[in-house]
Every structure is written in structure tokens, then in C-alpha cells.
């Protein structure tokens, strides 16, 4: 209208514009068709038909039966039930105990379904047999463990005896060496071919082994010489020296020694010493070294005094 005064709205501030922008509402996205299509309907019917046609497995049937049984046992008898009506005539009410006693059962006895064809006492028989088998298995396991322990103990004893034999050989060798050294220092060296019975019994077995090795070598030489004696002799026997006769097997006397007779003779003292256990023989040699030469095998040192000051003991265990 002419001459009319128009009132202008105040301009919106920047914060109002931001609030208006945040309050904008967007329309929802267009939804799909309200009705299923023919393809969807055909797929649904085909799936439902397959579900109805599929036969349940034995496990599924048993699970369904178990669920139905549990549901039935958990549901109280309705008042319309014929059995409930008969009990109601005798004064039974829903939630009361069964029987005259106040402490009687309020729920039915649980059903224990027997799925196999075994008799009533079969389970107890199975338990008895299982218990016997379990006890037998325990006995076998215990016996095996004991045998294993015995085997390990036997192996430990064998290792211990082998270690004692090595220590005995070392102690005998040391005793023989110190004895020869003492004889040399006194100026009375021992003869090289003295009878075995004159050697100390503590290391006599070592000397006997050396004689056995020497005799074995001698027998081998005799065998070789007997073969060499069959060779033709070109020179006159009067012109052949002793070395040539020995080489040709014509004179074997230089190879025979008096030690051969020592091995053939009995040595009851050595036999008695060898019959002792290894540990006892080792102890005798160790004590001899300590008393005679002030020497400790496990210290590896010859002490200047007879008290062996500083030595922890005789055995190896005392040195650990």
C-alpha cells in the first residue's frame, strides 16, 4: 500500500544461521517396495519346502525329546488334569507336598532315561571292571617307574664303578712311579725282571699286564720266526752269527725269559686283592699313597708333612 510503512525484520546473526543449518531435517531415503516380488516369494516358498522336507538327524530328535521332557517335568499339573482332580478330592492343593509328611517331595522324581539295552546291574559291573583295569594300570605304571628307577640307579652304579676303576689305575700308576723314584733316590734301583711276587700287591696287576703283553709279542715273534726258518740257507751254519740264527728261527732261546714261569704260577695274594670291590681296592691304594709318600691323588700334590695339612680328605667326595 502506498504510504504504508513496511517493518523490516532484523538481520539474522551468524550464530542464528548456524543454528538454523544444524536444525535442518533431511527427508528419508525412499523405501523399497511394500510387497515382495514374485522371485522373492518363490525363493521363500522353496526354502520353507526344503525345511519341511529335511529329515531330522538322530541327535536332533534326541535333543528335541529331551527338551520336551524337561519342559513337561518343569510344568505343574493343570487343574483340569484328571490326575490332579483325583488328588484334589483327597485335599491336595497346588504347591503342597506329596504325602502326609511336611518334608515330603514337592516335585516329581527325576526321570533317568535308559538308552541302551543293558540290565539294571550292568552299570555296576562295568564300574567294577573299569576300577580293576584302572588299578591294574596303576600297578603297571608303578612297576615301570620302579624298574626305571632301578635302571637309572644301576646306570649310576656302573658309571661310579668305571670312575673308580680309572681312579684305581691312576693311583696304582702313581704308587709305582713314586716307589721307583724312591728306590732311585736311595741308590737301590729295582731290577727290571724281578719275580711278580716281589712286587707290591697294590700295583702288581699292572706289572702282570705288562708281562702278558710282552709274552703276546714274544709269541708273535716265534710265529714269524717259525715261518722264516723254512727259508733255504745259502751260507754255512758255522759262518752264521747269532742274530742271523734268531732271524731265521734257528735259535729262539734269547726270547725266553723267566717271567713266563711267573704267570703260570698261582698268586693267591693277588687273587685275594683282585676279588675285593673296586672302591675298597682304591681306598687301600689311596691310604698307601698318603701314609708312604704323603701324596693325595685328588689334590695332585705331595705334601711335605705326614699330616697332609690342607687336604680335605681321602675320597673324591670330600674334595668336592
Automatic annotation (TrEMBL):
Start-end of Basic and acidic residues biased regions? 28-38, 47-67, 118-196
Record domain G-patch: where: 79-125
Note down the stretches annotated as region Disordered.
Answer: 1-67, 118-199
Q: Could you cite one Gene Ontology molecular function of this protein?
A: nucleic acid binding
Q: Name one Pfam family in it.
A: DUF4187
Question: GO CC terms for this protein?
Answer: kinetochore
- List the residue ranges forming a coiled coil, or say none: none
| InterPro entries, per the entry | DUF4187, G_patch_dom, GPATCH11
Q: Which PANTHER family match?
A: G PATCH DOMAIN-CONTAINING PROTEIN 11 (PTHR21032:SF0)
Protein's recorded name: G-patch domain-containing protein
Q: Which organism is it from?
A: Epicoccum nigrum (Soil fungus)
Amino acid at each position: 500500500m502506498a504510504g504504508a510503512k513496511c517493518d523490516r525484520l532484523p538481520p539474522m546473526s551468524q550464530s542464528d544461521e548456524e543454528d538454523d543449518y544444524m536444525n535442518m531435517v533431511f527427508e528419508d531415503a525412499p523405501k523399497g517396495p511394500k510387497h515382495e516380488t514374485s522371485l522373492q516369494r518363490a525363493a521363500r516358498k522353496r526354502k520353507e519346502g526344503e525345511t519341511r522336507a529335511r529329515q531330522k538327524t538322530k541327535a536332533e530328535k534326541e535333543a528335541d525329546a529331551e527338551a520336551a521332557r524337561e519342559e513337561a517335568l518343569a510344568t505343574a499339573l493343570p487343574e483340569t488334569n484328571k490326575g490332579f482332580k483325583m488328588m484334589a478330592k483327597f485335599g491336595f492343593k497346588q504347591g503342597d507336598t506329596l504325602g502326609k509328611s511336611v518334608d515330603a517331595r514337592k516335585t516329581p522324581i527325576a526321570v533317568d532315561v535308559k538308552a541302551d539295552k543293558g540290565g539294571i546291574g550292568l552299570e555296576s559291573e562295568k564300574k567294577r571292571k573299569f576300577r580293576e583295569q584302572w588299578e591294574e594300570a596303576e600297578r603297571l605304571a608303578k612297576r615301570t617307574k620302579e624298574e626305571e628307577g632301578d635302571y637309572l640307579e644301576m646306570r649310576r652304579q656302573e658309571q661310579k664303578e668305571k670312575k673308580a676303576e680309572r681312579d684305581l689305575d691312576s693311583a696304582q700308576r702313581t704308587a709305582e712311579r713314586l716307589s721307583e723314584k724312591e728306590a732311585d733316590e736311595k741308590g737301590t734301583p729295582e731290577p727290571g725282571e724281578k719275580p711278580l711276587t716281589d712286587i707290591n700287591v697294590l700295583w702288581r696287576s699292572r706289572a702282570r699286564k705288562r708281562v702278558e703283553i710282552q709274552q703276546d709279542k714274544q709269541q708273535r715273534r716265534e710265529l714269524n720266526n717259525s715261518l722264516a726258518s723254512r727259508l733255504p740257507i745259502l751260507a754255512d751254519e758255522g759262518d752264521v752269527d747269532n742274530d742271523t740264527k734268531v732271524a731265521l728261527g734257528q735259535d729262539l732261546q734269547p726270547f725266553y725269559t723267566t717271567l713266563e714261569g711267573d704267570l703260570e704260577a698261582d698268586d693267591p695274594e693277588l687273587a685275594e686283592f683282585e676279588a675285593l670291590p673296586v672302591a675298597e681296592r682304591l681306598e687301600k691304594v689311596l691310604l698307601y699313597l698318603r701314609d708312604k709318600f704323603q701324596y693325595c691323588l685328588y689334590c695332585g700334590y705331595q705334601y711335605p708333612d705326614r699330616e697332609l695339612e690342607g687336604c680335605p680328605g681321602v675320597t673324591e667326595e670330600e674334595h668336592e
